[in-house]
């Protein structure tokens, strides 16, 4: 797959014309296909889970916040371990494949868990463990398979393909619910079948990076030493602080459902607004980040989220949910892949999976705490005060991050 990038040359001086194309490698596209299919599977579950837990099982916002925090934070325990293991063994594909396989099996675990909240929590933790194991090695493969100057573009292409799956997942979930007359178990089983296809695609089409490696270069000491590098430490710390004041997706959709009294039948469609905008903007914002700087684009994405939260507290006009979901999509398009593109060049190739996993771990821990705190605030203060406090905290951290010396990549 090739994406055109015009480059001028001085013909009059007789200099050779430089290549006019920057390649997004076949490995990036293959990983994008794996993520696309995986996201169909995972978003099928994500689309129905809040409804199932809050309306079906009767959890209050604090209880849901604890489960949502567990869902987001369980990855933190294993992200660095998975990334370090992949770097040390030089088996990025194998570690990622194990993570994809574990998450696939957990979809069957949701079928077996039934209505037991404890069992559902354990299965969700195992599912996120699989995600934690695979994310660092996968993003390292994308980074190592791309030209340094086009990392934003490569991550943008991958995230765009990933988001196609996020867009299709809720639609498939709704179709399965309609055919099965509202059976959540049918959704979970279908999700397992789709996830199994993704594991097969990874095995057949994704190439690892073979070759020997100096294991001393990827020791635990070297991994922790990454945080001694000023720019990398700054990226990791600010990403974690911003994660702490980020409201989780499930809460955003629940707020929309409560404020605008959206029927339960249409609840799984809410993530489509986010996914649609993310799909349209992932590549353009990735290319913009390569040109103007990845850190300003990353912070701009958080400004979009802050505006979305403010709109959620405004008048209940019919158009506001559409605008809020659009801004939510801008947030993801400007932050998800862009953060990895910003952090990647700051990490040596031998520690790429480990370094990216360190950044992701800080985010995961912070978002776990954020979900619990937001659920507690909603329970104690009610909906609108909780959202306003979250928006104020996010605005303050974004402003502080913008005032420090910009991160170079």
Automatic annotation (TrEMBL):
Keywords: Membrane, Transmembrane, Transmembrane helix. The chain crosses the membrane at residues 20-38, 69-86, 163-181, 187-206, 235-256, 262-283, 295-318, 330-352, 364-381, 387-404. InterPro entries: MFS, MFS_dom, MFS_trans_sf. The keyword DNA-binding does not apply. GO terms for molecular function: transmembrane transporter activity. GO terms for cellular component: plasma membrane. It is a multi-pass membrane protein. It is found in: Cell membrane. Residues 27-408 form the Major facilitator superfamily (MFS) profile domain. The keyword Membrane applies. PROSITE patterns: MFS. This is MFS transporter.
